[in-house]
Amino acid sequence: MTARKREEMNETAREREEAKVHADKAVQDDLRALMKAIRVIAQAIDTRSKAMARASGLTIPQIVILAGVRDLGEVTTSGLSRHVDLSPGTVVSILDKLEDRGFIVRYRNATDRRIVHTRLTPSGAEILSHAPNLLPDAVTNAIEAMAPQQRRTLVGAFRDVAGMLGNVG
């Protein structure tokens, strides 16, 4: 192999290594930007949840559970858990609080006593009807104003990230 050929090969190897370093830096920059966006979203959700709790006496998870019971009707804990994407243990804990406040009732199935159903009470339906929207109006308006393809892309990206985060142990 000639010296010129060796030099060309070394130059190609250096270029590949520089491209890899540049690509790694770009990935790291993207990951930092994603983590910052997630922190901003988490902070906004926390702030919104506290404001909603002050305004309605309900947290976001409580509103989500009440809405799930309303939407599904008489529902089992496992069915509700799947519907709202929360663990059964978390759902039971929230249902305990909602039951203590008289917003839901739980009762055993007449034919299989192992099965527990949940139903919304009139006071639960009433408080839910006055609960604020989960998303601030400005966010809802901005999403409604998007072109359908842009909206689908946004929803798809959030679902992808939620799926990645949901698979983390």
Give structural notes.
The protein has three domains: 1-56; 57-131, Orthogonal Bundle (Arc Repressor Mutant, subunit A); 135-169. It has helices at 3-56, 60-72, 77-84, 88-100, 122-130, 137-145, 148-166, and strands at 75-76, 104-108, 116-120. It is elongated, with a radius of gyration of 25 Å. The protein is mainly alpha-helical and 169 residues long. The model has no long low-confidence stretch (mean pLDDT 88). The chain has seven helices and three strands; from the N terminus they run H-H-E-H-H-E-E-H-H-H.
CATH architectural group of the largest domain: Orthogonal Bundle
CATH class of the largest domain: Mainly Alpha
Q: What percentage of amino acids are in beta strands?
A: 5-15%
Number of domains: 3
End-to-end C-alpha gap: 53 Å
Rounded to the nearest angstrom, the radius of gyration is 25 Å
Overall, the morphology is elongated
Helix-strand category? mainly alpha
Count of helices?
7
Number of strands: 3
The whole-number mean of residue pLDDT values reads 88
Strand order of the largest sheet: 1-3-2
- CATH superfamily caption of the largest domain: Winged helix-like DNA-binding domain superfamily/Winged helix DNA-binding domain
Question: Helical residue percent?
Answer: over 70%
Largest sheet: 3 strands, antiparallel
- Point out poorly predicted stretches: none
* CATH topology descriptor of the largest domain: Arc Repressor Mutant, subunit A
